């Protein structure tokens, strides 16, 4: 799993790519499909970031398994 910092950087890059496509590539016939592709990637990254941040807030529970033991005393000292 990627770190939250790495995901934030990837989100900024992806948002920048979308912005660039919208502003600089208006005449390109591939523009609408490319924007949809990057928007889909952006949603995936945002969902992964939300999951990573949730795990930072609520860590997974730790299960500790203990073996049973019996204690007996000695008499007659």
Order of helices and strands: HH
Radius of gyration: 26 Å
Mean pLDDT rating: 87
Question: What share of the residues lie within helices?
Answer: 55-70%
What is the total number of structural domains? Answer: 1
Shape designation? rod-shaped
End-to-end gap: 61 Å
- Report the strand count: 0
> Total helix count?
2
Unreliable residue stretches? none
Sheet bearing the most strands, described? none
In terms of DSSP E residues, the strand content is under 5%
SSE-based structural type: mainly alpha
What does this structure look like?
By secondary structure, the chain is mainly alpha-helical. It has one domain (4-57). Helices cover 62% and strands 0% of the residues. It has helices spanning 4-24, 31-57. α1 (4-24) runs antiparallel to α2 (31-57). The longest helix has 27 residues, at 31-57. The radius of gyration is 26 Å and the shape is rod-shaped.
Keywords:
mainly alpha, 77 residues, rod-shaped, 2 helices
Annotate the secondary structure layout.
Layout: H1 4-24, H2 31-57
Helix pairs in contact: 1-2
Summarize the structure.
By secondary structure, this protein is mostly helical.
């Amino acid at each position: 799993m990627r770190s939250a910092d790495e995901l934030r950087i990837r989100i900024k890059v992806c948002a920048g790519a979308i912005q660039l496509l919208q502003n600089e590539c208006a005449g390109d016939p591939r523009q609408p499909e490319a924007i949809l592709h990057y928007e889909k990637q952006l949603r995936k990254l945002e969902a992964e970031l939300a999951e990573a941040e949730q795990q930072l807030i609520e860590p997974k529970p730790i299960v500790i398994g203990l073996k049973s033991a019996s204690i007996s005393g000695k008499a007659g000292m």
